[in-house]
Every structure is written in structure tokens, then in C-alpha cells.
Amino acid sequence: MEALKVIVVAVMAGFAVSALVIIFMALYRNLNKLGRGKRVLIIRFLCILLSLLIFVSLATYTKTDYIKKGIMGFSLGESVANRCGVTGAFISHILFVLFGTSAYIIPIVLFIWGVIRPLHYGRFLLWHAYIIILAVFLDVIFELVPGIYGGLIGHNLLYFLTRWLGNIGLYILLAFTFAGLLYMLPAVRKLGRKRRQPREISEKRKRIRRPKTEPETIEQPPVRIKPRKPIGKNFWERFLSILHQPEKDYISITGDELSKNASLIEKRFEEFGVSGKVTGISPGPVVTRYEYQPAPGIKVSKIESLANDIALSMKASRVRIVAPIPGSSAIGIEVPNATRKDVYLKQLLTDEKFMSSRSKLTTVMGVDIAGVSVCADIQTMPHLLIAGATGSGKSVFINTIIASILSKAEPEDIRFIMIDPKRIELPVYNSIPHLIYPVLADAKKALDALKEVLDWMDMRYREFARAGVRDIEGYNNRSQTKKPYIVIIVDELADLMLTAPREIEETLTRLAQMSRAVGIHLILATQRPSVDVITGLIKANFPARVAFQVASKTDSRTILDMNGAEKLLGRGDMLFLPPGKGEPVRLHGAYISTEEAKGIANLWAEKWLNELLSDFERCEELTQMVIDYDLMDSIVKPDMPGAMERIGNFSADAQKELNIDIGALRSTLLKLDYYPQLSEMKVTAEKRESFKERLDEVDELFEEARKLVIRHQVASVSLLQRHFKIGYARAGRMVDQLEKAGIIGPYQGSKSREVLIEFE
């Protein structure tokens, strides 16, 4: 009976401790209303205070404070000697009776938590379990040592283990327990170091529309958030399993071939009166660089003029001469390998450089000529200009950038706006929840989206000023509501510039000049690197550039302001000009197939749909059916032709296979707001609604003026004056009203305003 009473008391004590933990964490959650610094300070102070209370209670424990009655029954003595009074006497007696000498672990751990770091709910429970196991282990150990009391738990557990296992079995069990505790300690400490910010999604998502904006300052409302699960190890493993397995050895040239080629280069130069020797060789997967050191008195320009002759003697398609190699007295002669090896994305994503990067905007660029992985952070670029001929590898490189970001970033971290006038490469990513809109193919819609991003940029600057911070990192560190980075990707800038070149140039230039601090980054790509596409204003604001193979030296100078891109080999061979560097670096981009890109998009769609459709039974099977039916385009664009019919047919099939209510499923899929809404979008939507409410105040001829400018595709004050026979002031007000309504573009000097709507 005594042993049973001990077990009951131990269980009750466990429940009491758990209740205290729950109450403590509930109080901790309520402290979220305070700032992070104040919350951390309060939690640390409480931990230190509680640890001191328990420690003083244990240190001043006196047996005479209690009159023992049975094994756990007791009552207060005539006087209490404990320094913490009756409360200290009660706490110390309970802890000593249960844990014995190991009770001192509790205040020590609390004090360490209070001094070193604040508590987090998940990590707190893990440490809590670890400390309990350690305390019980020490109870048994102390009970074995004469003169040290191990508590009722240690005494009864030792009795139980000795009776059932014997002395030898007891020692073996204790040894295994000690080894297990030592093995678990690094993992527990590692988990304790990982500070995880709560992932957030909007509880209420509204259908995304493209609102028109006004230059008014509207107070941005707070966005309600709820925690989400972060990207875990299982997701990372599934992500990597989609990608092709790289080859173990991608150096395709032997040592004998390298020596033979070096001798051939020296001999060929001597035939043209250039003496020197090859001092170094750097083989790679695509090209091999031979470091040639010319003799004194040899001009570099003479060596550069012999590039075609070297290519002829080496039987190579193109030879690029780097004269000189930066930081070296040698000249680099880059000769293509006879057998080219592909570089796969998986080998770069698993490289230590990429894995150790903490930035969500880190992307793999490729490998250098020696086969060493090269990564870059879009935050430091902060914008990227990509150009090259058709088939040179631009679109694959863009897919590499997107896949790199998707491998580690949640929708709460990074959002995309993708513009693809060609409608070929980027629509495959319509199913990722990181998008703000479905991939934009119409040039006018893309221009409207870029203008809206300008409004978001201004909103963020005003909000950062109110918060007293300079950039998005400072804001996210201080605010509970995090701002995601926004990456704008344009796959073909030339097609976009055909619509409204001046307006697009001004919009892109203003974004490039001002958007870095608010977390907006641009990636522009074009296959026509001419001066009317890559204008001087655009190029001046894009210090980071990537040049793929081009047709002429003129195109190379347009991109890089230097020759060299015309000597590239295609298929991902590129020159990367980092910001602040005068010389480009030759890289070989990683290959990612369309099937791999589609698999990555489907993986994110599966993860996101499992959350959105969690109210349905067998939601995982339902999500897999959605992906197998290739239904994502119909879900994200329910107004596209045939979308409603496809969703209806799918709902009928899901009812047959999964026994799901067809009406509820069809209604959910048609009304599903797949992309999380940005807080800035809510503000612009409210501004648009506010303007609609004021339409009653516009000119009585507004509707006729709207029809007139749409019909003639011309908008000017003089046109309205002549047609309606009104004065200049009234016609000017009508033009301003048409601009606010999003029907015509902004003022363009002596030119008439652009009409943004082609037909009604």
C-alpha cells in the first residue's frame, strides 16, 4: 500500500507540474501583446525569481518544519525555520521527499533559462521531459550512494528495478540510460538554439483583384495571423527526390589530354612569334582554363588577336581569352572540353555554401570553370538583369533561381510576381502559393501590376517611417506582423517594352532605384539585348548582370559593357557580373527540366492544399486527386474558359471515389482564394472601393467621355473640349477623373495620354 501511495502521489505531482507549465505558457502567450523585448525581459525575470525562491527553500530546508505522519502525510510543526516561510517549507519538503538531493537541478535549470534565453513553448516541453528523465536517473544513483537520499521516487524505483533485474541488470540499465542522456544532450541543445518565428497565413483570404490606386495615405490595418508549420526535413527530402541525381565525377578530361593541350597551345603561340609557357591548368565540367604566362615584351593585345587561331589548332568551336586573369600575371585561355558534362541542380542545392546560407533569397548560380559551386544573395544584388540569345539557357537559369528560393522559403517569407508574355516557361508555377497573382501574360495587366507594386513600395516606406526603421529587416525584427520579400520576374522584357516602352521604363527604373530597402527585387530577362530594350536608365540601376551566349560583340557590350559573351558556348554557359565587381566570372548554370519544375510546383501545391482543404475528410487523398487531375490552373483562375466545367467534373469523380459531398467540394474549389493576400493589397482594394463610392461626384459627362476615349484610343483635354464644347478647366477635371478610374494613363508631356482599356 505504501508503494501504491507513492505512485499515486508521484502521478499527482506530475499533473501539478504539468498544470503549472500550462498556466505558465498561457501567461506567456498573453504577453505577446507586449513588444518582443519587454516580453523576453518579463519571462527571464520570472524564471530567475522562481529559481531563487526554490533554491533558498531547498537550502534552508529543516526537517523540524514538518511532523511526519506515514510515508507522505505531514503537518506543520510549531515553528517554521525556512527562510521562505510556509511556502518555502512546503515546496522544499515536497521536492526533497519526491526527488531527494537531485531536487537542486530544478532551480539551477530555471536560473540558466532565465539568464541565457527566453522560453519557447515547444522547446520548453522538450527540455522539461529531458530534465525529468535526468532527475529520475539521479534519484536512483543517489539512492545507491550511502548517506545521500534519492527521494521516494528513487527509493521505490531502485527497489522495483533491483527486484526484477537484479544488481547486474540494474547497473546495465543505468549505464544505457546514462549513455542515452549524453547522446540526447547535443540534439536537445541544438533544438533549443533554433529560434523559430511563427509562420503566418491569413485566416480570411479575399479573391485577388487588380485595384486602381489614388495618391492618398491610408492607415494600414493589422493583419490577423495564425501559426503554421515550417518547412521540415521530410519536405526537404521530398524536394530533393524530385531532382535528377548528379554524376559523381563531371571532370571529363584526363591528365594526359591536359598536358597535350598545354604543349599544343605553347607551340601554336611560338608559330606566331609569341613565347611563353603554361603555368597552370584548371579543368572543369565544360571548359578548361590554361594559365599562359607570356615572356617579357609580349603585348596582351597580340595574344588576344590569336583566339581564332588557337581554336583552330585545338579543334574547338570557341576559345575565350581572359587577358589578364584578375589578380594574376598570367593570361587565361579557356578551351571547351571535347565531352561536356551537365551540371545538375541537386548537387548545388546540397552544397555546403547553399545549405549554410541563412538568407531566404540565396540562389545557386552554377559552378565556375573549376567545378566549384557559386551562390549569390538577391538581397545584395539587389536586382538582376539577364540577357542572351534564344536557347542559350536564360529560362532554365530563371527556373534555377525560382527552385532555389522555393527550397527554403514559405509564402510568408517571399512572394512572387511572374510576368511571361511568351506563355511558355513560367505558367508551370501557377500552383505555388508564393505567387501574388497567377502568372501574367498580358502586357497591360503586367504594367498595371508593376504600378500597383509602386504603390505598395510607397506604403511600406510610410509604414517603416512610422515604425522608426530603415529597411525590411529592421521592420521584421521589430514587428509581430512580418513583411514578405517580393520578387518580380520578367521572362521577356522585349515583349513587355512593345506595349508602352516609356511608361514601363519609368516604372522599372523607379522600382529599381527605391525598392531594395522595402524588400522588392527585380529579375529581368530578354533574348534581344538591344539598346531600345536594355536602355541606359534600366542598365544603370541593375549592377548585377548575367550574359549568356549572344550573337555579336555589340550585344555583349550592351549587357556587360565589355566583350566576351559572344565567345560563350550556350546551354547555360554564362558570364556573371556581381555588383561592385569590374570583371565578370564565367559560370556554368545548373540544368532543371520542365518535369522537375512541375514536380516542385506540385509539391508546394500538395502542401498548401492540405491546409486549405483540411475540413474535408481524407483531405490528403483529395489533394492528390487534384494534382493528378491537373486541376490547379482551374482553381487559381476560376474565370478561365472551361474552369467551372472541369471543377464540376472533378467534384463528381471525387464523390464517387472518396464519398465527398459534391456540392460542398465544388463550392469550395470555385471560391477558394488560393494565394494568400498581402496586407498592402487590402489597402489598395479599400482605396478602389472608396473611389467607386465617389463616382456619383464625377462630372455628368464622365460616362460619355469614358466611351469616347475608349472608342478613339486617344485621351486629351483638347479632344474633350472639341467634342463636348466645354471649357479647359472642366475638360482637365474630366481627364483627372478618367486617370483615377484607371481608364487612361498618367501625364506624358506633349503627348496624348495612353488609353489602358482597348474595348468594353
TrEMBL record:
Residues that, per the record, bind ATP: 388-395
Coiled-coil features, chain-numbered ranges: none
Entry GO CC: plasma membrane
Compartments, as annotated in UniProt: Cell membrane
Region (Disordered): 196-219
Pfam families: FtsK_4TM, FtsK_alpha, FtsK_gamma, FtsK_SpoIIIE
Domain named FtsK: residues: 369-557
Record flagged with keyword Membrane: yes
Keywords carried by this UniProt record: ATP-binding, Cell cycle, Cell division, Cell membrane, Chromosome partition, DNA-binding, Membrane, Nucleotide-binding, Transmembrane, Transmembrane helix
Membrane-traversing stretches: 6-28, 40-61, 90-113, 125-148, 168-188
Gene3D superfamilies: 3.30.980.40, P-loop containing nucleotide triphosphate hydrolases, Winged helix-like DNA-binding domain superfamily/Winged helix DNA-binding domain
Source superkingdom: Bacteria
UniProt keyword Transmembrane, yes or no: yes
SUPFAM superfamilies the UniProt entry points to: P-loop containing nucleoside triphosphate hydrolases (SSF52540), Winged helix' DNA-binding domain (SSF46785)
Membrane topology, from the record: Multi-pass membrane protein
Protein's GO biological process: cell division; chromosome segregation
Subunit relationships: Homohexamer. Forms a ring that surrounds DNA.
Protein family per UniProt: Belongs to the FtsK/SpoIIIE/SftA family.
Record's protein name: FtsK domain-containing protein
Lineage of the organism: Bacteria, Bacteria division WOR-3
